[in-house]
Design goal:
Number of strands: 19
Strand order of the largest sheet: 6-7-15-12-13-14
Strand content: 15-25%
Low-confidence stretches: 1-39
Largest sheet: 6 strands, mixed
CATH architecture of the domain at 141-158 and 290-451: 3-Layer(aba) Sandwich
Helix content: 25-40%
């Protein structure tokens, strides 16, 4: 029996008037033989008549406003009431969430007040360490084989090896355990220990592009706390599905994290949920800072640490710990050039909105850095650099090939800064780099591999003009075979050729071993085909050459 994908369902509101409860009951009594009622859901047909219809009409009562929404489910030959009913819970849940935010509700997160930012202290990080030590893995910090390539002693802190694939577990576990501890103290003492920790709540909610949502869902499940996560439209499918596997309620709303955050705060207000900011809540920052304590325990002395920067919670917490335990170590942040919100905040002297564009480092695409994170980190960070997409892709490729580590774009941003030669002052130094996330979609991973190979000069495209006669292509491919390159793609173009009518343009994509192999191919082709043209070759060389010096 096949099931129906939610993507195959076309939803539409009643065009003339909404279904009212009394209308629903009237219709149900008049057509009871053709209607299946399941908790305010009406299927407007019977099992025997399904195959004769093109669509199955469904009306669902919204728990938000009591109105009815119509759904049309396409019919397939194997469809039955059983498979339709399997979608009811998901449809009803989706219909229960309001499409727009009621403007009469004032949205404010008391834990992240722009007028009164909080500077997280080292004793909070130390306290977080003792609270979460039983629920968080102590991840390895190992010397990298890439050290000689980069002319510095690189040590990777591999926090992507946490159970849910990112460092976010540290902050999520800490925040949830503090909530539970405060409620337990209140029950025992009949007194509110900390007014900023609610006592009576129905669950927790957060806005996240993926990793914070995953961590909160997982630790919420472990501690029997209901979790709702609001994810922006660009959130990877893998992260959305993983959150559902941890029994979290997932809502996809917003074009960026700012819009998702507004919606999450609205739901928190109307549904008695505790909103937990994934990068700016002081307990989150303190929890992330435990990474810094671990590094100091594992490493001894080191000269610098490079930390990916999105909302600022990780670099703020780690910087607090490092400056306390290794005051002479440089702290360098690395963020994606497609959303340099921390760089802009430093220039403006305060968090400021930064346009966010799609990026391989989707986890760092936070338009406005956290006010607490910025207040904590602004005076103890030594440098912040921005990394382009090509170097992020190259970093993912290097880590996969050399370290056997599958790391997402956001997690690889620190290493990308080294490959981009953005930290030349660290040459010859002992450097720790945080690999903080490994949740990358398999489809995105494939694209990253191609981009990384192209940036590394190992995936090359060129165009040559040949005589359009038998044997022309054979001669070209025979030369490629002789040089030892692998032909990945080939395309013939006859209509838009500017030469004589007997010519054809041939576009090729080939894979080489390295830059030397690429230039051997280029020189040979130029000798045989003076019109051979290589696209973007010089630009690509400039991208990966710093990592070869």
């Amino acid at each position: 029996m096949s099931s129906i994908s939610a993507n195959s369902i076309h939803a539409k509101f009643a065009s003339d008037e909404d279904y009212e409860p009394n209308n629903k009951n009237e219709k149900s009594s008049n057509s009871s033989q053709n209607t299946l009622n399941i908790q305010n859901v009406k299927l407007g047909t019977s099992k025997s008549s399904i195959e004769s219809l093109e669509h199955i009409p469904i009306s669902i009562s919204s728990t938000h406003n009591g109105k009815y929404q119509d759904y049309q489910i396409p019919v397939s030959p194997t469809l039955s009431c059983t498979t339709v009913s399997s979608m009811i819970d998901e449809l009803r849940t989706e219909s229960s969430f309001p499409d727009i935010i009621d403007s009469t509700h004032k949205l404010f997160d008391p834990n992240c007040d722009p007028e009164n930012p909080i500077e997280v202290k080292f004793d909070e990080v130390l306290s977080a360490r003792s609270i979460i030590q039983e629920s968080i893995d102590k991840t390895p910090c190992k010397k990298s084989r890439l050290s000689s390539m980069c002319n510095m002693e690189i040590w990777f802190k591999k926090d992507y090896l946490q159970y849910t694939g990112s460092f976010k577990e540290r902050g999520a576990s800490h925040a949830l355990l503090k909530l539970l501890a405060n409620r337990e103290k209140h029950i025992n003492s009949q007194d509110i220990i900390n007014p900023k920790y609610p006592i009576d709540f129905e669950g927790v909610i957060a806005a996240s592009a993926g990793n914070h949502a995953l961590a909160l869902a997982y630790h919420g499940q472990l501690n029997n706390i209901p979790v709702t996560v609001v994810m922006p439209k660009y959130a990877p499918i893998m992260k959305i599905n993983s959150c559902k596997q941890f029994n979290a309620q997932v809502i996809v709303r917003g074009n960026d994290l700012t819009e998702s955050k507004q919606y999450a705060m609205y739901l928190a207000k109307i549904r008695n949920l505790v909103y937990i900011n994934g990068y700016d809540h002081r307990d989150i920052i303190a929890g992330q800072g435990t990474t810094g304590i671990e590094i100091c325990e594992q490493m001894g002395q080191f000269d610098a640490i490079i930390i990916p920067v999105g909302g600022g919670g990780l670099i703020a917490g780690v910087a607090v710990a490092i400056k306390q335990l290794r005051p002479n170590a440089m702290i360098i942040g690395a963020e994606a050039v497609r959303c340099p919100s921390f760089t802009n905040a430093l220039k403006a002297g305060k968090p400021t909105h930064t346009p966010s564009y799609s990026s391989l480092a989707d986890g760092l695409a936070v338009p406005v850095v956290g006010v607490n994170a910025f207040e904590t980190a602004k005076n103890i960070i030594d440098k912040v650099v921005t990394v382009n997409e090509e170097h992020i892709a190259l970093a993912i490729l290097r880590l996969l090939e050399m370290e056997k580590a599958v790391v997402e774009g956001a997690g690889a941003c620190g290493f990308a800064a080294v490959l981009a030669n953005l930290v030349p002052e660290l040459i010859g130094k002992r450097v720790v780099i945080l690999l903080c996330g490994g949740n990358i979609d398999t489809s995105i991973l494939g694209r990253c591999m191609d981009r990384g190979l192209a940036a590394d000069g190992r995936l090359v495209r060129f165009k040559v003009t040949l005589l359009d006669r038998p044997g022309g292509i054979a001669q070209l491919t025979n030369y490629l075979f002789t040089v030892g390159v692998s032909l990945k793609d080939i395309f013939h173009e006859r209509a838009w050729v500017k030469n004589d009518i007997f010519s054809v343009d041939v576009k090729c994509v080939v894979e080489t071993k390295d830059w030397e192999h690429t230039f051997l191919l280029k020189d040979g082709l130029k000798q045989r085909y003076p019109n051979a043209r290589f696209e973007d070759l010089e630009d690509k060389m400039m991208i990966s050459r710093p990592s070869l010096h």
